[in-house]
Amino acid sequence: MPHRNRTDPHPRSPEANPKRSVTALDAFAAREGHARVPHDRIEDGYPLGVKVASIRGKYRRGTLPAERVSTLEEIPGWTWFPKS
Predict the structure, then answer these.
(1) CB-CB contact of 36 with 24 (8 Å)
(2) Global pTM?
(3) Around Cβ 53, how many Cβ atoms within 10 Å?
(4) What is the DSSP letter of 7?
(5) DSSP secondary-structure letter at 9?
(6) CA 54 to CA 46: how far, in whole Å?
(7) 16 pLDDT tier (thresholds 50, 70, 90)
(8) Using CA atoms in the order 45, 31, 53, 65, what is the torsion angle rounded to 10 degrees?
(9) pLDDT tier for residue 3 given thresholds of 50, 70 and 90
(10) How many angstroms from the chain centroid is the CA of residue 66?
(11) How far is it, in rounded angstroms, from Cα 15 to Cα 22?
């Protein structure tokens, strides 16, 4: 197994494969008409709800890269604060 340093994301973290999170979220939003993913939502074996919650947490803490913010904000129905 390759060695990861402490700054590398865990393979199952949302940052390990950000494109998968965006792709799954985009498909969810297109199908459901919104991007308020329930925390327990699994899409094709992918824990989308947990990943989206983690992404929103990073945004609130100011640790989400600007390019990810822009990408997510392009998804129709996306909101940073889904319960407001």
Answers:
(1) no
(2) 0.77
(3) 17
(4) T
(5) P
(6) 14
(7) low
(8) 100
(9) very low
(10) 14
(11) 11
DSSP state of 10: P
pLDDT one-digit tens code per residue, 20-78:
999 999 999 999 999 999 999 999 999 999 999 999 999 999 999 999 999 999 999 99
Residue type, 24: A
- pLDDT at 8 > cutoff 70: no
Q: Is the pLDDT of residue 12 over 60?
A: no
Q: Give the separation between CA 67 and CA 50, rounded to whole angstroms.
A: 21
User: Contact at 8 Å (CB) between 75 and 53?
Assistant: no
DSSP string, 18-76: HHHHHHHHHHHHHHHSS----TT--BTTB-HHHHHHHHHHHHHHT-S-HHHHHHHHTST
Six token digits for residue 47: 């824990």
For tokens 């459901």, the residue is: 32
